[in-house]
Design brief:
- β11, α9 (230-241) and β12 (247-252) form a beta-alpha-beta unit.
- A 4-stranded mixed beta sheet has the order 3-2-1-18. It has a 3-stranded mixed beta sheet with strand order 4-5-6, with helices on one face. Strands 7-8-9 form a 3-stranded mixed beta sheet, with helices on both faces.
- The longest helix is centred in the first third of the chain and has 16 residues, at 29-44.
- It starts with 12 loop residues before the first strand and ends with a strand.
- 44% of the residues are buried.
- The chain is built from 11 helices and 18 strands.
- The protein has a single domain, classed as L-arginine/glycine Amidinotransferase, Chain A (5-stranded Propeller).
- It has helices at residues 22-25, 29-44, 56-68, 86-89, 110-113, 118-131, 159-162, 173-184, 230-241, 293-302, 325-328, and strands spanning 13-17, 48-53, 74-78, 92-95, 101-107, 134-141, 148-149, 154-158, 188-192, 209-213, 216-221, 247-252, 258-259, 268-269, 278-279, 283-288, 309-314, 330-332.
- It is an alpha/beta fold.
Length: 333
């Protein structure tokens, strides 16, 4: 049996990947990199940042940008990936029964075979060697963004993602629960239903609902009854309210953000939310979108972090790739 500490426990560092794909970010790639560098600045103030790049040219470009912003405490690895979302293709770092850090490398299949993923899966294995951490390979598809744990006895996830037949078609719900309990050291699984409209992961939990302490859960809500997300999030909220012994804090979604991709005739809704924050050793870094709800969300989140400052950073360009700060990172313990 293994144990996954909560994200607010101290990290050895954070893994992330330098944005590189024009297939994900199109003509906004340089603006995405600017927002990424700003994000790295704040992580690096409290912990080491391990950054994957695809080539020597990218390494030089990244070093130039880091130097310009006077960012240190960074180590760069040439470790090619298809995509940037380390939360999902990297291993999940846990403790074994001896208290030793090990990396659980679940299989990654491009969010249900939607996108190329061979390099992502290989990079997730290679990073353990680069960091000198023992790796345990697990024959089960699981993305890090699909789960959240309070580091004690509960784990959050969604049925839409983990029970989707494009992940583990041969595993029943009961079998998946058994594996989650074994690998993450929890006793109870909280199954929410669906994720946000526009989320092509089938509903990752880190876009909608997060633990911020053992008994406090923040969850996204939409108060606009005409919204695509209203019924989805209200159903999840009712499940959370039925739990005993938890305080549930409602965090409003920002007003909808749309983007027209080059191969589409109409705009698509993006999965904009404030739940995709990343808890670092020094800060809680929250994606913001130049909406009136930005301050409301930041203030609500700050209430639950007495030992860290909550920082809101623009993530509207990163969002074009359908992710944000939590998706970009994986903590090393």
């Amino acid at each position: 049996m293994y144990y996954m500490p909560p994200e607010w426990n101290k990290h050895r560092g954070s893994i992330t990947t330098y944005p590189h794909s024009e297939e994900n970010f199109f003509d906004k790639l340089e603006e995405v990199r600017e927002q990424f560098i700003n994000f790295i600045k704040y992580i690096s103030e409290g912990e080491k940042v391990f950054i994957n790049v695809n080539s020597e040219d990218e390494r030089l470009d990244l070093e130039k940008k880091l130097k310009k912003k006077d960012i240190n405490n960074v180590e760069i690895f040439i470790n090619p990936t298809n995509d940037v979302w380390c939360r999902d293709n990297c291993p999940i770092f846990v403790k074994d029964k001896r208290g030793k850090t090990v990396a659980l490398k679940f299989r990654f299949n491009g969010w249900g075979e939607k996108y190329p993923y061979k390099l992502d899966d290989e990079a997730g294995r290679k990073i353990t060697e680069l960091l000198g951490v023992e790796r345990v390979d697990i024959d089960m598809v699981l993305e890090g963004g699909a789960i959240d744990t309070n580091g004690k006895d509960y784990l959050l996830t969604t049925e839409a993602c983990l029970l989707n037949k494009n992940r583990n078609p041969n595993l029943s719900k009961e079998e998946i629960e058994k594996k989650l309990k074994f690998y993450f050291g929890v006793k109870n699984i909280i199954w929410l239903k669906n994720g946000l409209a526009g989320d092509d992961t089938e509903g990752h939990i880190d876009n909608i609902t997060r633990f911020v302490s053992y008994r406090v859960i923040l969850t996204a809500v939409d108060y606009n009854k005409n919204s695509e997300n209203y019924d989805i999030l209200n159903e999840n909220l009712e499940i959370l309210k039925s739990l005993k012994g938890f305080y549930i804090e409602e965090i409003p979604l920002p007003e909808p953000i749309y983007y027209r991709y080059p191969d589409e005739e109409e705009e698509s809704i993006l999965p904009a939310n404030y739940m995709n924050f990343y808890i670092t050793n020094k800060y809680v870094i929250v994606p913001i979108f130049n909406r009136e709800t930005d301050k409301i969300a930041l203030d609500k989140i700050q209430k639950h972090f007495k030992d860290r400052k909550v920082i809101g950073l623009p993530a509207d360009k990163i969002l074009i790739g359908k992710g944000a700060f939590h998706c970009l990172t994986q903590q090393v313990i």
